[in-house]
Write a structure and sequence with these properties.
alpha+beta, Double Stranded RNA Binding Domain, 4-stranded mixed beta sheet, 45% helix, 27% strand
Length: 103
């Protein structure tokens, strides 16, 4: 599993937090991808700030699928909460659309 982080507007400590929390929260997504023989996928996590810098826009996408890519977009003022929500929604999306994704 590879991760690609795109967050040009984040400070270094916030970027490090993004990485640490993402590695932790996306463990179950990694397990599901391993079960459907997509263990070598890349998860792209993009973060930007909106408004007056109070809201994070988190865009999570699983690359390397041929037909359609699972994508989740979350807006929240709490980055950790947004990552957790995105991981949960992405996991659900992969499980429910597994046949479309791999076939």
């Amino acid at each position: 599993m590879r991760y690609l982080f795109v967050a040009p507007n984040l400070t270094q400590p916030t970027f490090e937090t993004l990485q640490e929390v993402s590695f932790k929260m996306f463990k179950k997504v990694e397990e599901i991808l391993r079960k459907i023989n997509k263990a070598e996928c890349t998860i792209k996590i993009s973060v930007s700030k909106e408004g007056h810098g109070n809201v994070y826009r988190l865009n999570v996408e699983v690359l390397d699928f041929k037909s359609e890519r699972p994508v989740v977009i979350i807006k929240d003022h709490d980055l950790r909460k947004a990552i957790g929500t995105a991981a949960s929604k992405l996991k659900t999306q992969i499980v429910t659309r597994r046949k479309k994704l791999i076939g």
